[in-house]
Amino acid sequence: MTDPKEKLRLGVLLSGGGRTLLNFLDQIRAGKLNAEVAIVIASRQCKGIHRAADEGLDVHVVPYKEMPDAQTYSDRIVELLDAAAVDLVCLAGFLSLWPIPPRYEGKVMNIHPGLLPLFGGKGFYGSKVHAAVLAAGMKVSGCSVHFVNNEYDAGPIILQRTVPVEEGDTPETLAARVFEQECIAYPEAIRLFATGALTIDGQIVHVK
């Protein structure tokens, strides 16, 4: 928790287009999120890097595939986050598994484009999640914001928002509807964190 008058310093990790990052910035500019993006770290060259640079943000690329091992990769990310003095790390379409050190436990969030624990885990990301939802004949889908641990999509869930699965949906049409809810859910989870409203008890997140 930070002083309510102080801006929460965010570190944003991404691997793709950066739409979630742009949503954060829109929320900040609209006065709906008392935060600032202190640093952006990408796991590879991607559109999100250019979007972040266009916004004047501090951007770094830490290529996962060029690191000798997972620990070296984690150490480099932590070094950058520490230097930026971040309060909360937000994964925003970050596709690499970042081994999180103990001091960052409970300070890393992610958003998943499905209702966890369904359709989560290694290999379930982006359109693959929506295709699996449709193949399973689900009648609802949605998004899940969760704290991150060292397993894919296995950390305690903070909040979820749902959408109906409609007749004739494709992965693309379903994704668009889910993303609308992601743009609401992720900033809300950040606000709850900033006010100290979240308590982690094992796999349960209690909201005051």
How would you describe the overall organization of this protein?
This protein is of the alpha/beta class and 208 residues long. It has two domains: 1-104, Rossmann fold (3-Layer(aba) Sandwich); 112-208, Rossmann fold (3-Layer(aba) Sandwich), CATH 3.40.50. Helices cover 32% and strands 25% of the residues. It contains five helices and nine strands. It has helices at residues 19-29, 47-54, 70-83, 127-135, 171-194, and strands at residues 8-14, 35-42, 59-61, 88-92, 108-112, 140-147, 157-164, 198-201, 204-207. Strands 3-2-1-4-5-6-7 form a seven-stranded mixed β-sheet, with helices on both faces. Strand 1, helix 1 (19-29) and strand 2 form a beta-alpha-beta unit. It is globular and about 50 Å long. The chain starts with 7 loop residues before the first strand and ends with a strand.
Topology:
Blueprint: E1 8-14, H1 19-29, E2 35-42, H2 47-54, E3 59-61, H3 70-83, E4 88-92, E5 108-112, H4 127-135, E6 140-147, E7 157-164, H5 171-194, E8 198-201, E9 204-207
Parallel strand pairs: 1-2, 1-4, 2-3, 4-5
Antiparallel strand pairs: 5-6, 6-7, 8-9
Helix pairs in contact: 1-5, 4-5
